[in-house]
Amino acid sequence: MTRKQKAAAAPAPQPAGVERNVVVNDNRKLGALLGPLDRFAVRLEQKLDVRVARRGNQLTVSGQAHEADAAVAALRALEARLDLTGELAMADVDAAIKDALHGDGGSPHGIIRTPRKTIAARGRAQADYVDALLREEMVFGVGPAGTGKTYLAVAAAASFLAAGQVERIILSRPAVEAGERLGFLPGDMKEKVDPYLRPLYDALNDCMPAKDVARRIETGEIEIAPLAFMRGRTLAHSYVILDEAQNATPMQMRMFLTRFGEGSRMAVTGDPTQSDLPRGQMSGLEEALKILDGVKGVSIKRFAAADVVRHPLVGRIVTAYERHGDAGA
After folding, report:
1. E strands of 204-326, at which residues?
2. Which of 2, 93, 260, 293 is deepest in the core (most CB within 10 A)?
3. What is the pTM of this model?
């Protein structure tokens, strides 16, 4: 082999590694950034192919320049989130890494302040959704499970109620599994619909003290109403949430949306791929998205599998199902 051929066959030289330092003067904060048993640091190392080492009150990130810079940006974003919310989860780390790789790091954006905690959006899709929830009169949050669309809607409602911007929160959901014949179930109205609205209750209790939630339910400031019971009402000065909206029929959806009253906000959440309606029955959510696209005062925010924050495996499951659906179409 000639010298020229040897040179051509030789692997391309790798760029030299770099070291970047992040100084954190608060040891407790530094420990929170690393995570329990350094789990957050390990996730950074795995996702970005870097090495994170602690030296006193300093974190040293070593690796290729692009990845090391992304790791530093993620750490700075996580530090800012920690200052704001007081806690970090693995989903925050994954979102910070994703943002840093796309040059979208920095201070947390999409902030909701509730009575129990301050919530910062995870990623650009959530941030855009939060901004819409706080700004627009009617918002559709559409996408797969685990993207935070229902939780953030409830958090926004809790924030509006606590600030006196609305007089009550109304939570609604189609009770498809019971065929809307809730009268056959035991108990009062709250007990009848509790199983269907448990995710909304969980989110409420995460954003407001449990005693406050119970008291406001008793006074009617928080109202739980199945979709079938909304007919004929005008919902004024309220933050109204319709969850699992893919299970509403077109007639139900039109009825619900036209309940909108003065001084109110509406959030409609759902996943068109998860409809429990009878085969062949069009979803009212799908129809509404087509009809209302571009209507002034209506904001439609769509989430994708890449926006799942619940657990990385959920995102991979959603992607696999989407791929299977495309292949079978």
Report:
1. 222-224, 238-242, 265-270, 298-302
2. 93
3. 0.78
CA–CA separation, 215 and 36 (whole Å): 36
The DSSP output letter for 109 is -
Phi, psi at residue 304, to the nearest 5°?
-125, 175
Higher-pLDDT residue of 212, 195? 212
User: What is the residue-averaged pLDDT of the chain?
Assistant: 86
End-to-end, the C-alpha distance of the chain in Å comes to 53
CB burial readout 227-239, b (16+ within 10 A) else e: bbebeeeebeebb
For residue 43, give both structure tokens.
């996730």
> What is the three-class DSSP state of 222?
strand
Contacts of 34 (CB under 8 A, 6+ apart): 40, 41, 52, 54, 59
- Take residue 214 and report the two structure tokens written for it: 């119970």
Interior CA angle at 324 toward 322 and 328, to 5°? 115
Q: Is the pLDDT of residue 180 over 50?
A: no
Neighbour-count burial for 144-169, b at 16+ CB within 10 Å, e otherwise: bbbbbbbbbbbbbbbbbbbeeebebb
**CA–CA separation, 96 and 9 (whole Å):** 39
3-state secondary structure of 82: helix
**CA separation for the pair 249, 233 (Å, rounded):** 18
CA proximity to 265, closest of 295, 232, 297, 289: 297
The predicted structure's pLDDT at residue 197: 73
Residue 2 scores a pLDDT above 80: no
Other C-beta atoms lying within 10 Å of the C-beta of residue 194? 14
